[in-house]
Structure formats: C-alpha cells, structure tokens
Specification:
By secondary structure, the chain is an alpha+beta fold. It has six helices and seven strands, in the order ααβααββββββαα. Helices cover 38% and strands 25% of the residues. A hairpin with a 2-residue loop joins β4 and β5. InterPro entries: CcmE (IPR004329), CcmE-like_sf (IPR036127), NA-bd_OB-fold (IPR012340).
C-alpha cells in the first residue's frame, strides 16, 4: 500500500478516539500583535499632565499658605508688645518702633539694636543682614518673637511704603511724632 502524506486517509482521521475528529481544522497561522505605537506615549503624556497639575496645585497652596500666614501676623507698637509679653509668649508677630540712635551693633550675620516706641525700649537681635536703608531713627517693622527679655527677629521692614501710610495714617503720625521727639532730644 502506498501512502501519500499530502492526502491522508479520511477513515484514519475520523477515529472516535482522535481529539480532532469532531472539530474543524485548527487555524495555526501566525497572527500579528496589536499595534502599540501610540499607547505608551499617550500613557506617559497623561502621567506628565497629572504630575504638572499636582505641582501647580501644590505651588498654589504654598502661595496661599504663605500669604495667609503673613496676613495673620498682627503687629504691635513696642509699648503694646511689652505690655502684652505674657499673652504673646513665644508666638510670632510684627512690631513697630524706631531704632534708637547709637544702639546698632553689627556682627557676622546678625545685628542687634534697641527699638523704642512711646515710653518703652526693647533690645532686638536680628538674624541676617538688615535692609540697605536700615539706620538709627528710622521707623521699622520687625517680624519675630520674644526670647527671654529680647525680641528675636528674622525680618526687618523699613516703614516707608505709601500703602502702609495710607492704611495706618494715625499710627504713622504717632510714630513720626515719636521719632521727631527722640531725634530732637538726642541732637
């Protein structure tokens, strides 16, 4: 008997024990993978976009936090702050007064001086370099807290801003009169 391998005997294929007897022929042609040329870059772009939004929201939150924190810092005149020292404790606040002539001592990274307003004087230690216009008899606003008998500040603002003057006209007049009285007494 001659057997032709290209044409198998159908009686041999329909054997009941054969696994493929009742099923159609199995398609074993290779298939191509689905195209992924754009899906990876789309995913990366979406992660970058989400990351950018998160960074933007965090930056906005930081700006709002800093702005509200600065707005929450009430300021006192020196005499008010000294009178309320116990209540203020070690919390941060702003304080206004005039730098007393002859009290400025500069050292590496700090400056100490005496600030006065009304009948009160207070020793101040400021960390960091003072602003360029800082000098004796200049009205300043300090930001910091009480440490013992001194006021430790980390920011000195020279009080010369016109918007400050407009908003606090009565305080400006009182501070200017105080500065004039002190400069007349020392000069």
């Amino acid at each position: 008997m001659d057997v032709d391998p290209s044409a198998p005997d159908p009686s041999l294929l329909d054997d009941e024990e054969s696994a493929d007897a009742a099923t159609p022929a199995l398609d074993i042609t290779p298939r191509r993978a689905a195209s992924t040329s754009g899906s990876g870059s789309k995913s990366l772009r979406s992660y970058v976009a989400v990351g950018a939004v998160v960074v933007l929201i965090a930056a906005l939150g930081l700006v709002l936090f800093k702005g509200l924190n600065n707005a929450a810092l009430f300021y006192y005149n020196v005499d008010e702050a000294v009178a309320q020292r116990q209540d203020l404790g070690d919390q941060r606040f702003r304080m206004q007064g005039n730098v007393v002539d002859g009290t400025i001592e500069k050292s590496d990274g700090a400056v100490s001086f005496v600030i006065a307003y009304g009948d009160q004087r207070l020793n101040v230690v400021n960390s960091g370099a003072p602003p360029e216009l800082f000098d004796a008899k200049i009205p300043v606003i300090l930001e910091g807290q009480f440490v013992g008998d001194e006021f430790h500040s980390d920011q000195i603002l020279i009080r010369h801003d016109s918007t400050y003057d407009e908003k606090n006209a009565d305080r400006v007049k009182k501070a200017q009169a105080d500065a004039d009285a002190r400069s007349g007494a020392s000069g």
